[in-house]
Amino acid sequence: MTTAQPLRVAVVGGGIAGLCAALALEQQRQLGAQLDIRVFEQASKFGEIGAGVSIGPNSQRALRRMGLGEELDKVAAPPGSDPDRWFEYRVGQAGENEGKTFANVRVEVPSDGRAEIDRTLCSADFLNHLIKKLPEGIAVFNRRASSYTPTETGVQIHFENEGVPPFETDVLICSDGIKSLLRGCLYQRKGLDMDFQRARYAEWIAWRGLIPREKYNAIFGDEAPENIMHCGQGRHILTFPVRGGSLINIVAFVRDEEHAKLGNHTGPWSEPRPKEEMLEDFAGFNQQCRDLLGCIETGSIWGIFSINCLDVVTDDRVVLIGDAGHATTPHCGAGAGQAIEDALFMAAFLAHPSIQRSTGAARTAAINRMLAVYERERHPRAAKVQRWSHEGGMLYEYLGPEGSDLAKMKDALESRMKWIWEFDGERELERLLKLLDEEM
Where does the FAD-binding domain lie (predicted)? Predict the structure, then answer.
């Protein structure tokens, strides 16, 4: 009887999605799964843009199940004076009702006192802690994966780097982001519409900046909530704490349906632009909002891109996760959370006995049956988040069906996030593992 060799798993891309996947796989290895893990990163070291991200209750639970709760707690801002509030919504636009609070979106704090409120953090800080957890010898740097080729014995990953030979693996996890070259390879191999899978301008830009907590308090008062969404016609400003609450992250969105801000850019970008341009974009907002933006010393403008909702995210022993499979606008604060859920599910699936114990063609067949279940059962949730996020951005800017009717906006806002946050990942994972038992 042939003894099954450790399952070779290659993760391409070392952002939050890729490192969470690698660490979830490492956890499964420590629990007894036979896994040989590699992470390929195109840069000379792991790194992340220092943007603020939101980690909702659903993704917190996933992180804790993967053994990464401590890393989250080290960098997440502590709960404020109203710990179950996600955002307070105010009228940011000058004129009628300016400054009025019209909605509060809350996360229900569980009765056992476990803090599962939305947590905010700097993605670069979080990534630095994930890096420290990664075992030595797993990461391979200066490798830009450009394509792959399934073979009888595995999947060969091809690199753009001169002189670097292909690397063979049993399973390829593509977490190479919104600009994923491997997503293009998947679509080309399957004869699908290449244009459909390309990153597209979401017709928003965002001004970003960080200010000390003291400056924020000077404008809004010491007792003001840190998480506020200031809404207006075709634009909105949000604030939330990072770096343990010492800094306030400011993101000011402008709807750009005429592409006036886009210039010649064809993909995600960020660049410095004059502060005066930012202030002009929000000239119609109230004085507090303008004072807030005025505190930003070194702001930058970011083009917001996303991808279409894909039906196909798997190929022969290949899967897209994170932004490679479902890059979204940031208006639900759920993009990173979906990448974390992806990592949890994929690691658990690859540790399934039907894959672990099989060899050769039987193992290949088991992997592909597993990926079919993943695509059919798991991926639609991430695609729905993509749609929901776009609709959220329109809602915040009076561009949804509710218009600027504050009562209708309140009703929509206070109910729309529950299905994301209240997702029972434990139960769903248990259901899908049982489904794998049946289909394997």
Answer: 8-388
Q: Is 297 within a domain? A: no
Name the pLDDT band for 58 (thresholds 50, 70, 90). Answer: very high
Give the single-character DSSP code of 245: G
What is the phi/psi pair of residue 118, to 5°?
Answer: -65, 135
| Domain limits for position 350 | 7-78+117-198+307-397+417-439
Tally of CA atoms within 13 A in the half-sphere of 125 that contains its CB: 17
* Token digits of residue 61: 């639970």
Query: Is residue 46, in this structure, part of any structural domain at all?
Result: yes
pLDDT tens digits for range 73-129 = 888 877 666 778 889 999 999 999 999 999 999 887 555 445 566 777 778 888 889
What is the dihedral angle through the alpha carbons of 94, 105, 66, 184, rounded to the nearest 10 degrees? Answer: -50
Measured in whole angstroms, how far is the alpha carbon of residue 365 from the centre of its chain? Answer: 30
Structure-model confidence comparison of residues 279 and 83, the more confident one: 279
- pLDDT one-digit tens code per residue, 226-243: 999 999 999 999 999 888
Please check whether residue 281 is in contact with residue 252, taking contact to mean a CB–CB distance below 8 angstroms.
Answer: yes
Helical packing angle, 360-373 and 425-439, nearest 10°:
140
The order of strands in the sheet holding 101-106 is 101-106, 85-91, 228-232, 235-242, 247-255, 200-212, 300-306, 270-271
Q: What is the rounded distance in angstroms from the CA atom of residue 21 to the CA atom of residue 11? A: 8
Higher model confidence: residue 122 or residue 354? 354
Number of domains within the chain: 1
Residue 281 corresponds to which tokens in the numbers above?
């974009």
Q: Look up the pTM and report it.
A: 0.94
| DSSP helix/strand/coil, 184 | helix
200-212 and 300-306 strand pairing = antiparallel
What CATH code is carried by the domain that includes residue 365? 3.50.50.60
**Domain membership flag for residue 301:** no
- For residue 289, being part of any structural domain is answered with no
